[in-house]
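Handout, section B. The chain below has 128 residues.
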Amino acid sequence: MNPYEEPIEEKWHDEQAGPIVRPYVMTRGRTEPVRGDFNLISLAVSVRSAGAMEVGLNPEHLAIVRLCQDPLSVAEVAAHLDLPAGTVRVLLGDLLDKGFIDVQDPQPEVDMHDLRMYEAVLNGLRAL
């Protein structure tokens, strides 16, 4: 290379950019959802459709709205889109904030404030 030549600038596209750059760009650098508290088993379901011309939504947002016609967990959405769960949580927060999805957190099978549950545990221990 001639020392007087200007170096050719390298541009990265898609896979060449690496696994971290793309999710960071999709979320605009955000690491927490603007609304909602999503864990891996929270269920998301679309409540209205989103068109390609919807302001503020990128292709991943639109893919989530299409995927969630039936309830899917955060983990399932992440697997379908091949994205980190943290990125999906941020995108779901955007969709929840704009009214495109509804989120349902799983209900525990046992109400920890129910005295009958504690009585059943005590009776079981006494029977031992």
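Note. The radius of gyration is 22 Å. Compare this with the example in section A.
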